[in-house]
Design a protein that fits this description.
InterPro entries: Transpos_ISL3 (IPR047951), Transposase_Znf (IPR029261). This is Transposase IS204/IS1001/IS1096/IS1165 zinc-finger domain-containing protein. This protein is mainly beta and 171 residues long. The chain has two helices and eight strands; from the N terminus they run αββββββαββ. The strands form two sheets. Strands 1, 2, 3, 4, 5 and 6 form a six-stranded mixed beta sheet that branches. Strands 7-8 form a two-stranded antiparallel sheet. A hairpin with a 2-residue loop joins β4 and β5. It starts with a helix and ends with a strand. The structure holds zinc ion. The site of zinc ion has 8 residues, from loops.
Length: 171
């Protein structure tokens, strides 16, 4: 399994000292769970003052929902380290690279949700050069997020513009 762990460690964008340490794949539930751990003896920067190389002072087990891997729901589980800073004296939870603090979703998952909510409408009738009042076609900037692939989605506007947008998932 070492190769598979290394593959998914890379697929999740993780780097040392973090790595995928277990993968549970439930075909019937269409669900895949990843355990992410950090190497024993790892040290982290203090989130409060930035002092590097602080020792771990306990962990907090957490779970995040990630983007689907094909049709499978994906979850990341990790023991998030806390450090007791030898410089400022504070005990703080280290941030994880895949999620904002206290969010239950990874940043990629949040970016996809934001894209679905704000994505520009694609008019179905070819040649429909409707004006764009209110700038609805302006694509939001998600510079702090990775950009999910937009091509898998199609959108259909309902009869009345205020009736909202129907999103149809083609996967
Ligand atoms: Zn500190």
């Amino acid at each position: 399994m070492a190769t598979e762990y290394a593959l998914f460690t890379a697929a999740l964008g993780l780097s040392a000292p973090r790595e995928v340490s277990d993968i549970r794949f439930d075909v019937e539930a269409k669900r895949i769970d990843f355990d992410v751990t950090f190497a024993s003896g790892s040290r982290f920067a203090c989130p409060a003052c930035g002092a590097e190389g602080q020792p771990v002072h306990g962990t907090r087990q957490r779970t995040w929902q990630h983007l689907h891997f094909f049709e499978h729901q994906a979850y990341i589980h990790a023991a998030v380290p806390r450090v007791r800073c030898q410089d400022c004296g504070k005990t703080s939870q280290v941030e994880v690279p895949w999620a904002r603090p206290e969010s239950g979703f990874t940043q990629l998952f949040e970016a996809l949700c934001q894209r679905l909510r704000l994505a520009p409408v694609q008019w179905l009738r070819r040649g429909d050069e409707r004006p764009d009042p209110g700038g609805q076609g302006a694509r939001p900037r998600l510079s702090h997020h990775a950009q999910p692939d937009h091509r898998v989605l199609s959108h259909r506007r309902q009869a009345h513009p205020s009736a909202g947008v129907t999103l149809r998932h083609n996967m």
